[in-house]
Amino acid sequence: MVKIAPSILSADFMRLGEQVKLVEAAGVDRVQVDVMDGRFVPNITFGTIAVRALRPLTRMVLEAHLMVTPPEDFIEAFAAAGADTIIVHQESTPHLHRVLEHITSLGKKPAVALNPSTPASTLTEVLDMVKLVLVMTVNPGFGGQKFIHATLPKVRQVRAAIQNRGLECEVEVDGGINEETIRLAAEAGADVMVAGSSVYDAPEGAQEAIARLLASAQTT
Ligand code: DX5
Q: Is 174 a catalytic residue?
């Protein structure tokens, strides 16, 4: 069963609380908070303030996608702010094993993200430590970008590695997810789809957009 994880990056920040409640009412179980530091990615968004603000407003899972370096400096703060899942980029630290252990020790869900140029094989030593692998289907930094189809074989590889080891681990994709690409991602083995602009910029509204994305994913 495919799940949608709306990304707040494309939400109307003048009404962020309402925008999160809107997607919660549509039945999604999580939202993704896109944390960017202007160093790991060429854009700056927000830090723990966004997680802290949203925490009391929703029972949904808050996924903190840390597009920052070094992420180890921020794990405690995002855990304390109320993040449930903390997603760290493979490329953002030489100490990924230690960071994932730290996330787990804080009782949070450990997750790792791979940029489009990073092979799935870089997960070999840490795949057993994570509960979610995020395969970026765009180069991180901005919403509204075009889906990179060349990332689909990697989604398959990650799914196969999880199955071969008998692990309980979600495969999430992020970037350029729309009614057409969600089918490709689902066919490749992704079960969680991060969607920003296709949800919050949809003329039909976020709730209808989510319904359409889910319906499209079921047609695989
Ligand atoms: C990294 C961001 C975006 C965002 C999704 O750039 O994490 O991928 O969440 O953006 P859309 O769905 O608009 O491509």
A: yes
**Tens-place pLDDT, residues 45-77:** 999 999 999 999 999 999 999 999 999 999 999
Q: Which pTM value belongs to this model? A: 0.98
12 assigned to active site = no
CA 106 to chain centre: 20
| CA-178 nearest atom, ligand 1 | 12
Contact 6 CB / ligand 1 (< 6 Å): no
CA distance linking residue 215 with residue 218, whole number of Å: 5
194 lines ligand 1 (CB under 6 A): yes
Q: Is the CB of 209 under 6 A from ligand 1?
A: no
pLDDT range class, residue 133, cuts 50, 70, 90: very high
In whole angstroms, give the CA distance from residue 54 to residue 49: 9
- Which residues lie closer than 8 Å to 6 by C-beta, 6 or more apart? 23, 28, 31, 32, 194, 195, 196, 199, 200, 206, 210
Q: Pick the catalytic residue: 34, 37, 73, 128? A: 34
How is domain 3-217 classified at the CATH fold level? TIM Barrel (3.20.20)
C-beta neighbour count of 94 within 10 angstroms: 9
For 7, 97, 117, 121, 125, the CA distances from 194, given in Å and listed in that order, are: 6, 25, 19, 23, 25
